[in-house]
Design a protein that fits this description.
The chain is of the alpha/beta class. It folds into two domains: 192 residues, Periplasmic binding protein-like II (D-Maltodextrin-Binding Protein, domain 2); 214 residues, 3-Layer(aba) Sandwich (D-Maltodextrin-Binding Protein, domain 2). A five-stranded mixed β-sheet has the order 2-1-3-11-6.
Length: 433
């Protein structure tokens, strides 16, 4: 059934013959996350249907961002398709660096993309990247350890509850850490987590005049709370742990709680990979009672760099990889719990997917994230775990390195915040803000 649908879609785009004749190989840069690795295993289906070969360049998250940014800004032409997100897409689209994703087939159904995802991947109403999967962040926790600790997880907990529960669940002799969180340097790694967390503490990157705010008490409150909790209940070496490292720890049964991307739910509940698959519960990301939770909004999406010689074939691949048919293919092969989540409205309307234990909490987390009003106090930027300005990636990478040095015990919170304030102020002034 899938192959028939793929062929039908290809025919509708009238690209099969052209692609087979003119496009030998598409080179695609992507991140080494589980859903992307899974997609590579199905690529032969696309090649069978179209005659187009695919070559993958699979990179760690920080490296991917560096490589694709360098390639797009220098017009390197290395890739025909890039995996990028909500930060890069509107900026690069506005600069003319990406091919607009207009003219997609009627069967693809662009209108089915969740509005939060389509909006974050567009500029002036034009879609410049198609979401392979979308995510917010939420709490994943061990129900057995929570019960053993004599506690019950609320659907919408506070950070104070999380800290107390982490301490209660920690068992150093059994190598169980009460909580595992990102500390790895990188604006989209540990930087993303601490920024989303800071929103719930009332912090912000910039005030309404674009003045950095690291000298304000809310940032000190955030970092001091994080460091104290992680030193008390987190794993050794958490300063170098990112998404994949914490996923591995959780699957090995070494974390009582993990707050991270909603997309991880399918991996921690997969009995083929997770030793604790039968004991995982879910809750909204924590708050402090100030009206903002600490969940982010993101999509890993596929985009076409302007100047590629294989634009038509690249569009054809993006239609295939982000389609309803692809979701059905994964569901038929691996079950509904393992399909790429968070991108399409129809997925959450599907009765079979509604049976997946984390589907509702994922959608609730996505819908509760508001990139247009991410903080307690007003800000001039759009974005929850980032500020959607070109300068942010470079600034936030440096700031995240200062924070990771705190987590590693190499400097104090006060020293890191002072450096972050000075560096950010200097960079923003140089940029003309």
């Amino acid at each position: 059934m899938y192959l028939r649908n793929a062929l039908r879609a290809a025919t509708a785009m009238t690209l099969v013959a052209t692609a087979a004749a003119n496009a030998d190989t598409l080179t695609i840069a992507t991140v080494n996350n589980g859903d992307m690795i899974r997609m590579q295993g199905y690529t032969d289906k696309f090649t069978e249907a179209t005659g187009i070969d695919v070559e993958w360049v699979t990179l760690e998250e920080n490296v991917l961002r560096q490589r694709v940014t360098t390639d797009i800004t220098t017009k390197g032409g290395t890739f025909d398709i890039m995996t990028i997100g909500m930060y890069e897409t509107p900026i690069w689209g506005a600069n003319g660096w990406l091919v607009p994703l207009d003219g997609l087939s009627e069967e693809y159904d662009v209108g089915d993309i969740l509005p939060a995802m389509a909006g974050g991947l567009s500029h002036d109403g034009t879609l410049f990247a198609a979401p392979f999967y979308g995510e917010s962040s939420m709490i994943m926790y061990r129900t057995d350890l929570m019960e053993k600790a004599g506690m019950e997880m609320p659907d919408a907990p506070t950070w104070q509850f999380i800290k107390e529960a982490a301490a209660a669940m920690t068992d150093r002799d059994a190598e169980i850490n009460g909580i595992c969180l990102r500390g790895k340097a990188g604006w989209g790694e540990g930087g993303a987590f601490i920024t989303a967390m800071s929103n719930s503490f009332g912090a912000r990157w910039f005030d309404e005049e674009w003045k950095p705010q690291f000298d304000q008490p809310e940032w000190a409150d955030t970092l001091n709370f994080y460091v104290e909790m992680m030193n008390e209940s987190g794993p050794a070496g958490y300063a170098t742990n990112g998404f994949n490292e914490n996923l591995s720890l959780f699957q090995q049964g070494k974390c009582g709680m993990w707050i991270d991307a909603t997309v991880a739910a399918s991996f921690v509940t997969n009995p083929n990979d997770s030793t604790v698959a039968d004991h995982v519960g879910f809750a909204l990301a924590p708050d402090t009672g100030l009206g903002k939770r600490s969940n982010w909004l993101w999509a890993w999406a596929l985009a076409i760099p302007a100047g590629t010689q294989q634009e038509d074939a690249a569009k054809q691949f993006i239609e295939w990889a982000t389609s309803k048919d692809y979701i059905e293919l994964v569901a038929e092969s691996e079950g509904w719990a393992n399909v790429p989540p968070g991108a399409r409205t129809s997925l959450y309307e599907n009765p079979e997917y509604q049976k997946v234990p984390f589907s509702k909490m994922t959608l609730d987390s996505i819908l509760s994230a508001d990139p247009n009003s991410p903080t307690v106090k007003p800000v001039p930027y759009v974005g929850i775990q980032f500020a959607a300005i070109p300068e942010f990636a470079g600034i936030a990478t440096q700031v995240s390195q200062e924070f990771s040095a705190v987590y590693a015990g190499q400097q104090t919170v006060e020293e890191a915040l002072a450096k972050a304030q000075a560096f950010t102020a200097e960079e923003m002034e140089a940029a003309g803000y």
